[in-house]
Target: Anaphase-promoting complex subunit 4 WD40 domain-containing protein
Amino acid sequence: MTEEEKQTQQSRENEPQFQGNEEEEEFIDINEGEEVYDDDDVNAQEPEEIDDGDNDMNGEDGDEEHETLEIDMSNNSWTFFDKHTDSVFTIFSHPKLPMVFTGAGDNKGYLWTTHSQPPKFVAEIAGHEESIITGGFTSDGKFLITADMNGLLQVFKSNKSGEKWSKFAELNEVDEILFVTVHPYLPYFAFGAQDGSIWVYQIDEDSKSLVQIMSGFAHTLECNGGVFIPGKDENELTLVSISEDGTVVNWNCFTGAVNYKLQPHDDFKGVESPWVVVKNHGNLVAVGGRDGQLSIINNDTGKIVVSIKTLDNVEDVAELSIEALSWCQSDNINLLAVGLVSGDVLLFDTQQWRLRKNIKVDDAITKLEFVGTTPILVGSSMNGKIYKWDARTGQELYAGVGHNMGVLDFTVLEQGKKLVTAGDEGVSLVFVTE
Model:
């Protein structure tokens, strides 16, 4: 065993171990999430420092010359969860309890608390045999949906307190699921597949089953994203989906009819953008392309409001790709945030569609999310950091550090006071930002 392996093993032995629930241990109280944190506690626990293995490079050691490799191991996280053994691809929070789900490349899914230090292990979600990359909770918190790269989708139901989860149903309709989106307030979810298909299901508690509402096959290449458009009542169920083939489709989910379909050459004026991300706000839908194209669609009419080429003069075409979109939900602040592989965070005025700010980050942006109805924007990057900015000025308000690889996903808790990350190295960090 090398010296590096001995140090790593010793580090792991000294770390706190996360245990499963014991019957005598009381589970979480939602009011505990209101706990006030002292500044002295912020750095109380840090994740394991993971060496990159380059310990045999040159520097002075007796007669031998070795060069010391300096690694920035700074960490301002409040606590961490490191039960995963591979990249954590997805993280999302329970709507009512201080608890998150993480899914990873080790084919494991875990539920764990975010209000305790260290986190309490709640449950393991078993049954997946490939990387868990997407999922979500229903708005009432009763159901958890998880999906993997083999096309297996599972639904789990919780008891009233949320500490016990039992398998409700499963699906395996496609070879690979690319995303899951859950309706903002109804018991429906949709998923898109590598073959271009889109599927919508209802979670029916009465029949204790999943009821297929529709399946659509209007895309010819990967269905990369979809969003439910809230209707006037439960009789309306509308979904907009995007594809690698450059099409955008609005579906009536109850009938399976296509309300409109936008084609690359006809509707986008000759631009054939592989769409990779979609977000809606009111009657507007924003779609971002792998080629840097941004288009805004009036969902009521199916007409394109504006199309913008976000960046010019980029040497590497891959840096153009739009990886994240987020609309500011404030009634008084009209902004759309756009994150690119180049590390640019572009803030567009949604009245005149002019670029107001460009925030520069030194690596690819992976996700953006405005905090509630505030102008505070949270963003993560492959540089291993998570940020809070004031989108009105572009001022950096907070930077969370501690990952030694990229942040692939995050979730915002307690109105932005707490951020929880999904790290490429297999660790999740909890940051208390104020």
Q: What stands out?
A: Residues 310-434 form a domain with the Methylamine Dehydrogenase; Chain H fold (CATH 2.130.10.10). Residues 2-27, 29-64 have pLDDT under 50 and may be disordered.
